Amino acid sequence: MSEAVHKQLIDNISIILKKSLAADATLTTLREAKQAGFAAIFTPDAGFKCSANTFQPYVEEVANDLVFWQKTSDQQALIDIVKKIEQLFTVLAKLEQS
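User: That's the sequence. What structure does it adopt?
Assistant: Structure tokens below.
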């Protein structure tokens, strides 16, 4: 796969990691105020294997998927990574707006 795709994936995961750290801090504050009582950020049909009420496990899953893709160049793995990155960006952006 092209080096440009690889670099873009790493750049996007880095951005998501930074945003997720801030989002997880916000979620902690909201939980302490009893305003974030949900069990998972994404529903089971979102395509993630993990289920968590913070972003870090989802970011870790995407990073692990990237390592798998780097080793195998599996086309479906690349498609799944891109979908997960898109979902993370969407939810993180909504949280930032609220």
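The chain has a mean pLDDT of 93.
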